[in-house]
Design brief:
Helix content: 25-40%
Number of strands: 13
Low-confidence stretches: 2-38
Order of helices and strands: EEEEEHHEEEEHHEEEHHHE
Shape: globular
Mean pLDDT: 83
Number of helices: 7
Strand content: 25-35%
Structural class: alpha+beta
Radius of gyration: 18 Å
Keywords: Membrane, Transmembrane, Transmembrane helix
Distance between the termini: 33 Å
Pfam families: PP2C_2
Protein name: Protein phosphatase 2C domain-containing protein
Length: about 280
Amino acid sequence: MEVQDWVPYLIVLGSVAAILLLFGARRRLMTEAASSEPAGIPIGNGQTIGAREEQDDYFSSVTTVHGTAAVLADGISGLAHGRMASTLAVTVFIREFLKLEDIRDVQHYFTKAAKVSNTEILRNLKGATGGTTLVAAVIADDRLHWGAVGDSIIMVFRNGEFIRMNEKHTLESVLQERYLTGEMTREEALEHPMKRRLINYLGYENFKSIEIGSDPFELQPGDRVILCSDGVYNTLTEVEMEHILSKPLPPHDAAEEIIEAIEQKRLANQDNATVIIVDNV
């Protein structure tokens, strides 16, 4: 994700457990947060540091008697410690999910976890500017419950088609509304230099609320739930992702192939990229 040049750098505040690998002449960071892959619910993930100096994406998954939760956060790039915000947010969401006593309270879970993580990030920032996006999926009884803030996305891949769950909380969405109401031209909306600027994220003093699916999404056998940071969808087209996801690959292999496709493009400004795939069997 992008931030403006005027944003001050953060104080270094913690670290992410990671393994540093060499990929060609470039550093590649594969981060696996503490995760659990339950029997019968295949989960896969892939990650690359891209052309960045630091890995600001963080992710985790866990399973309880109530279902499986997968969480992905993308710390604001360009700041000294976007990864502090992303790590803290994911940790809070997993911690709160482990406290969940009834799946019927899942919407309250999303709301509470977002509020707690926003407060804790702000406390650690101590007045500096920073934050993270976050997408969280809970799969229980063939139903997808989800919450999202920022510009990371949740999709369901079904029969060769993508079904988008959340909206991107960027200025682009506001510009689109202004275009539809006639306040600006299509060209002005498309060419606006700050269209990717976040208008809502965790670690923001004016944090509004987390977007939550009003009703659970009914999953079908063979559906693939996809969580990804903008480093994935800004690099690969839907056609390229469809080609990979349509293959009869386990989710981890599919996730790794997505990351390989990103790295093969060798973009000079490649952002951190992370993808989680959960198969509904």
